[in-house]
Amino acid sequence: MASTKSDSPLIVADAISRAYSVNNGWLRPDATVHALSEASFELHAGETLAVVGESGCGKSTLARVLSLIEPPSSGKFTINGTEINPDSGLPSVDLRASVAIVFQDPFGSLNPRQKIAQILQEPLLINRPTLSKSAREAASREMLSLVGLRPEHYERYPHMFSGGQRQRIAIARALMLDPKILVLDEPVSALDLSIQSQILNLLVELQDRLNLAYLFISHDLSVVRHIADEVMVMYLGRVVEKGDCRTVFEQPRHPYTQALVSATPVADPSRRQQRIQLKGELPSPLNPPTGCAFNPRCWLVQPQCQTSQPSLDIVAKGHELERCVDVKSSGAQAVACYFPVNSG
Fold first, then answer.
1. pLDDT digit string (tens) for 126-174?
2. Is the entire prediction scored with pTM above 0.85?
3. Cα separation of 191 and 104, whole Å?
4. Is residue 334 part of a domain?
5. H helix or E strand, kind and range, residue 302
6. Is residue 115 assigned to a domain?
7. Which domain does 229 fall in, by range?
8. Torsion over CA of 293, 296, 297 and 298, rounded to 10 degrees?
9. How many domains does the chain have?
10. Which pLDDT value is given to residue 158?
């Protein structure tokens, strides 16, 4: 997808983290789950940043923090130049309106007791109470048309639509307050393949027309490859690799990224791709491994991987990679998290 990146980023995230306290029961101290650890990135208008990784890697936690549903536990980020951090208090109404979220299940996110007219007008009724009834209706009808639905759909209930139509309604509701940023949390994973392409094309059209910035969360790398400008790979709450979409897919450097890319189906029968099988399950965030979190499942693990906490480092222009601190400081030969590009 072609990017129309602006000079000034809409979001600048600086080492944002989110931790949760978990009750371990009577006579046991509470545990802490670090669901998101020190994520840093920028997001520009007209740009799509895709966040990928297994379930439990912190994608949805990042979505909740950036959509201002939850504050970060540490670190800070700015939206349109306004800083958000643990001490900044509640965001203003205008700031909240600048970020909207579209959830995975469109039927679960729509009120079954409300008609589409009520669903679309409700954000305006709450956030812009001085707007007249006729202005709210005109704006909601215009938005319904913008997402490709017909005028007769306006007075129907959510259960009267297909999954793809419900997702169009969810997108329309998210756009009612003219946000600059859309957080898309698995927006097409619950849809059939043919409907997925329609919704993705709609998102591309809306981005071009409204110059929106997308944070696109997905586990489907074939979808990510179609829509993303940049890709951020997460594992157990940490960013392990980040770069432009083409670089990450064609030259993945981190072992975990290589495993994810190798599992992506290839439509061309003449191209053969060797699948990298990861052993074991994602470690518990309550008891993460020491050193590199990926080391228990990595086929290239070295002794220092089990003791040294890796950090994100720039390895090429626009390409960041998590690699071992000891390797960087000693200048030794690169190991597991920083090995030559796979030419195959």
1. 999 999 999 999 999 999 999 999 999 999 999 999 999 999 999 999 9
2. yes
3. 9
4. no
5. none
6. yes
7. 11-22+31-254
8. 80
9. 1
10. 95
Helices 163-174 + 193-210 axis angle, to 10? 20
Tokens of 338: 């920083």
Q: Quick one: how far is CA 304 from the chain centroid?
A: 31
**Token code pair at residue 15:** 């080492």
- 66 vs 206: CA distance, rounded Å: 20
Exposed, middle or buried: residue 153 (CB in 10 Å: 0-12, 13-18, 19+)? middle
Give pLDDT, residue 171: 97
15: in domain? yes
Does a structural domain hold residue 268? no
Taking the CA atoms of the chain, what radius of gyration do you get in angstroms?
A: 21
Classify residue 275 by its DSSP letter.
-
Angle at which helices 163-174 and 116-127 cross, to 10°: 20
- Give CA separation, 316 vs 70, 333, 338, in Å: 33, 17, 12
254: which DSSP letter? S
The domain spanning residue 130 has which CATH number? 3.40.50.300
Q: Residue by residue, what is the 3-state secondary structure of 192-245?
A: CHHHHHHHHHHHHHHHHHHCCEEEEECCCHHHHHHHCCEEEEEECCEEEEEEEH
The phi, psi pair for 262, rounded to 5°, reads -65, -20
